[in-house]
Design goal:
5 helices, 2 domains, single chain, 124 residues, globular
């Protein structure tokens, strides 16, 4: 997956994101190559993107534009929003100052390790 500028729409990288998902392990047998469902907000609500997601064998759970809230997606999506807030808690990741992609991705990986360690330490 590639890094893009902050002023690009997220939906432009949807296909690359789906392709970058590693195999899902857990059950015996051949591991699943993709998740069963994809959750998204109203920015992804377009027939073109729904069709692309379905073509990969993934059920799109995307909020519809013009519909009131209450689709039930918030219960799952808040986990993503909370995690992004944790990343923004890392001062270096709030604003991207690094010009090189590999350095920025290294900081993202380090932040992921720190967030995971804090979460596990709280459970123990």
């Amino acid at each position: 997956m590639s890094l893009t500028g902050g002023n690009r729409n997220d939906v432009t990288e949807l296909e690359a994101l789906i392709e970058a998902i590693p195999p899902v392990r857990g059950r015996r047998g051949r591991p699943r190559q993709r998740p069963g469902e994809l959750y998204g907000d109203r920015a992804y609500d377009h027939a073109k993107y729904r069709k692309k997601v379905r073509a990969k064998g993934i059920r799109p759970r995307i909020a519809r534009r013009g519909q009131p809230h209450g689709s039930g997606l918030g219960a799952s999506r808040w986990v993503v929003e909370r995690t992004i807030a944790w990343y923004h808690g890392m001062k270096r990741l709030r604003i991207r100052w690094e010009r090189r992609d590999d350095i920025h991705q290294a900081f993202l990986a380090l932040a992921t390790c720190i967030i995971t360690w804090r979460h596990v330490a709280r459970l123990c």
